[in-house]
């Protein structure tokens, strides 16, 4: 049985831990409100832009000379995966869910005979994938450490992906990220970026394809909008990741704070019982000694 001194030290240590987790919970809650607002504001714009360009792609299907960002290379041999996680831990299963989803996807594609390349975004997924798939990683990026994620981060990543496509480094690009639903729920999601596909929640898949007239011309418009769409999709998922990370961290720290409180109660009970036992033993020794005299 631990001594009273050891129990006091353990109680003090857990109390200090509870103060830290409680403070981290409040910080995450403050960041979450801002991140959730930005993610919710970006989501409709990103979905509408993706849907519009996908519809344009269907309307011009079969015509030659279409941009690779729209139609891809026409092959299905080399897959580029872009998993997106946070740079920091202490967020529950937020990062491990992305890592597990990406790992399963890599193994599935390899089992189908595909060549896989990985471009991780976020320190946690990079560190995890480096252990098992170091030979598949062709580069990595960290998310911005500032309070607000700048659009330039998505611009640089989009330009890198477009450059790889132009060089023929891959045929299909898939983004793996946590879709923010609420504080308790972040859903690992796979989104195909190249070739461009309709959003999963789109209900117009069976509708008649619209007819478009291009001004100034189809090539000029698509060459301008497609790179921008790629950057917008990446930026929207970065905002989703930031919101999900803070939501997951707030939940994890809340659970840690509650568990620390329960541990303090148990240790305090053990301390009081041990103290009472020591007092009782001392009284018995005193009474026994008095009787012996």
Automatic annotation (TrEMBL):
PROSITE patterns: ATPASE_GAMMA (PS00153). Keywords: ATP synthesis, Cell membrane, CF(1), Hydrogen ion transport, Ion transport, Membrane, Transport. One of its GO terms (cellular component) is plasma membrane. It is found in: Cell membrane; Membrane. The keyword Transcription regulation does not apply. GO terms for molecular function: ATP binding; proton-transporting ATP synthase activity, rotational mechanism. GO terms for biological process: proton motive force-driven plasma membrane ATP synthesis. SUPFAM superfamilies: ATP synthase (F1-ATPase), gamma subunit (SSF52943). It comes from the Bacteria. Signal peptide: none annotated. The keyword Ion transport applies. Belongs to the ATPase gamma chain family. PANTHER family: ATP SYNTHASE GAMMA CHAIN, ATP SYNTHASE SUBUNIT GAMMA, MITOCHONDRIAL. This is ATP synthase gamma chain. It comes from Komagataeibacter europaeus. The lineage of its organism: Bacteria, Pseudomonadati, Pseudomonadota, Alphaproteobacteria, Acetobacterales. The gene is atpG.
């Amino acid at each position: 049985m631990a001594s009273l001194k050891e129990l006091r030290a353990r109680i003090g240590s857990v109390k200090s831990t509870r103060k830290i987790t409680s403070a981290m919970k409040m910080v995450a809650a403050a960041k979450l409100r801002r991140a959730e607002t930005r993610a919710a504001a970006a989501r409709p714009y990103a979905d509408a832009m993706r849907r519009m360009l996908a519809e344009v792609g269907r309307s011009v299907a079969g015509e030659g000379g279409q941009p690779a960002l729209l139609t891809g290379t026409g092959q299905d041999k080399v897959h580029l995966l872009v998993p997106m996680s946070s740079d920091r831990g202490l967020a529950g299963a937020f990062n491990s869910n992305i890592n597990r989803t990406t790992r399963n996807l890599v193994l599935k594609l390899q089992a189908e005979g595909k060549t896989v390349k990985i471009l991780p975004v976020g320190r946690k997924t990079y560190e995890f994938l480096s252990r098992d798939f170091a030979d598949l990683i062709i580069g990595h990026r960290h998310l911005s450490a500032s309070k607000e994620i700048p659009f330039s981060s998505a611009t640089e990543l989009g330009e890198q992906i477009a450059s790889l496509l132009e060089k023929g480094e891959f045929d299909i690009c898939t983004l793996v990220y946590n879709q923010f639903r609420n504080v308790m729920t972040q859903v690992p999601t796979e989104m195909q970026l190249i070739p461009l596909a309709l959003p999963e929640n789109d209900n117009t898949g069976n509708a008649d394809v619209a007819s478009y007239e291009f001004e100034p011309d189809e090539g000029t418009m698509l060459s301008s909008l497609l790179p921008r769409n790629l950057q917008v999709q990446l930026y929207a998922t970065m905002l989703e990741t930031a919101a999900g990370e803070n939501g997951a961290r707030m939940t994890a720290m809340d659970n840690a704070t509650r568990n620390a409180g329960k541990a303090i109660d148990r240790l305090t009970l053990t301390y009081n019982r041990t103290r009472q036992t020591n007092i009782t033993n001392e009284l018995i020794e005193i009474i026994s000694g008095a009787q012996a005299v």
